[in-house]
Amino acid sequence: MIAAKIFSGEKFELESGSHLPELEIAYHTWGDFDPEKNNVIWVCHALTANSNVAEWWPGLFGEDAYFNPRDHFIVCANIIGSCYGTTGPLSVNPASGLPYYGGFPAITVRDMVKAHRLLAKHLGIERIHTVLGGSLGGQQAMEWAIAEPQQIQHAVLIATNAVHSPWGIAFNESQRMALMADETFGLPSADAGAKGLKTARSIAMLSYRNYKTYELTQTDKDREVLDDYRASSYQQYQGQKLVNRFNAYSYWTLSKTMDAHNVGRGREGLEQALGRISARTLVIGISSDVLFPVMEQQFLARCIPGASYVEIDSVYGHDGFLIETGLLAGHIGEFLNKPAKKFEFQGS
């Protein structure tokens, strides 16, 4: 494993028309190129993850996993706007000499992919065997496959969509309302908005899981208790867990990025944009996902030329893309190891 950063001293133009005076990218790599440089696996991470994919996607990535450094050259880059090393709200703005905090410019998925492409060039990568990601990571993988169809050979899109839904935007806005209700949010401090972030994460958990998940995992053994419910303590725990490792300004920024996701923008619509993808594509839906329901993945599979669709049955809802690694590895392995003409459309 190699953890490193690259730095670009040139202005980084953003889709909004604004720019970053400079850009730093944090990334991890594992393994080495094969002789033809045809073994690159590029992972696009989701909302609050980092570039150490072996840390948050074990079972799918690791020494003994399906994607391993013996067979693959694996790359994962931290996204713009995050707080794990790539330029984001906690970075110093060269114009002021102070961190951006709430003044960080709006970032889109296309901006994230533009940074990935810059890193790929830096690493000498001309073609990518497989790009994959779930949720916001899947949005990036999809955007990249549209923007550079000849560079991407295979795409694996998990629990994601072509345009962020009003339902998803509403969840994100509710979380931002929690941030704004924290009187410290907006102050020039890395700790600003911590209470709001804790509440925002609690709201998010309701969309990442579902009724059945909570019924199976958070039901009190003593059904006659009058307070201190297991589900209550779970929400508190999950909220604080994120506060301990993430930042409210990055959370605000990246939630806005998801809201703006629309591969059809400036491309004559969703169907036309998805039709540009030439990579062999596997789309994976999760039966119990209430945030990115399977109809969104089925739409992708219908519109991407030759795409295959599978659906995994999981009680974990949207978080199934991080938890059900055995099922994912099986479907991905089957897809990548079968000739395209023999791989049939599957799923509901």
Automatic annotation (TrEMBL):
SUPFAM superfamilies: alpha/beta-Hydrolases (SSF53474). The gene is metXA. Belongs to the AB hydrolase superfamily. MetX family. Homodimer. This is Homoserine O-acetyltransferase. The keyword Amino-acid biosynthesis applies. One of its GO terms (molecular function) is homoserine O-acetyltransferase activity. Substrate binds at R201, D319. Signal peptide: none annotated. Its main location: cytoplasm. It comes from Anseongella ginsenosidimutans.
